[in-house]
Write a structure and sequence with these properties.
This protein has one domain: 3-Layer(aba) Sandwich (Rossmann fold), CATH 3.40.50.200. Helices cover 30% and strands 21% of the residues. The chain contains 9 helices and 14 strands. The strands form 4 sheets. It has a 7-stranded parallel beta sheet, with helices on both faces. A 3-stranded antiparallel beta sheet has the order 2-12-11. Helix 3 (86-95) runs parallel beside helix 6 (249-271), helix 4 (126-138) packs parallel to helix 5 and helix 6 packs across helix 7.
Length: 321
Amino acid sequence: MGKVGLIPYRVQAVMSSTKTIPPGIQMIEAPALWKEGYKGEGIVIAILDTGCEMNHSELKERIVDGYNFTSDDEGNPKMYQDYNGHGTHVAGTIGATENEEGVIGVAPLADLLILKVLSKDGFGTNEWVTAAIYHAINWRGPNGEKVRIISMSLGGKVNDSSLHEAIKKAVQEQILVVCAAGNEGDGKDKTNEYAYPGAYNEVVQVGSVNLKGEISKFSNTNDEIDLVAPGEEVLSTYLENEYAVLSGTSMATPHVSGAAALIIEKWESKMDKPLSEPALYEQIIKHTVELSYSRKYQGNGLLKLSGQKQIDKIKQQITTA
């Protein structure tokens, strides 16, 4: 039985109250899409993690359903409460609701499907994760809604064929699968560090940068990295209706998952037709800015949602003409 667990991360601060747009969310320029009217409304994101604090003031309105695949609470499937804090933090970065308190997520009107695959100690099995992926594929909301994005800030050393097959099936069903790269990096791009499911080609593997846009020393490097996002000093929701600052590729991943919801909503509202998984991936990569690192560090670059990259290119063409 293959084990999977939380990719090691750091809790840097816990606070009872705050009122801010977290700096990582500003860094990826999510507010630019909010101003255009896109906040992820109607997009369902499945979060496979340690569960979620179901009554957190920032999250309770966003949670549409959930399921517990772990042995916590005697395996009660409807008890997907978070006893660890990690899943609640990830959920807040994706979709903390817009109100007059606390923080706001990348996609503050997205719907969150909480699939608890890691127990209170932060560990689970590949079987639990695989079952949750199939659950996400088959899940339907009251109006026939489907999961569009699966977000997984977890990893293990075992290349599990059943888990890989489940991910392939999700992608075939037009679900984007976003995964953390892992925090075993040694700061060198000559060596490869792989964590699964992040290392599978079919997923969007997310590395981490700090708030200055520098590659995090802990971020895994390999030839399957797709892009990077803020993963250090990330402020989000936490247990006991509080907030915390955490660091890790686990924290970078939900920035990309939330961004995907904004991109889907914007594209489909303009084109009036469904956005396929390959086309969504292409759109995400179009919203990256290349950094001065090798591709093993950064993949296609840093996530930037405003389209400033294209504007800068046009300006450069005009000045060099």
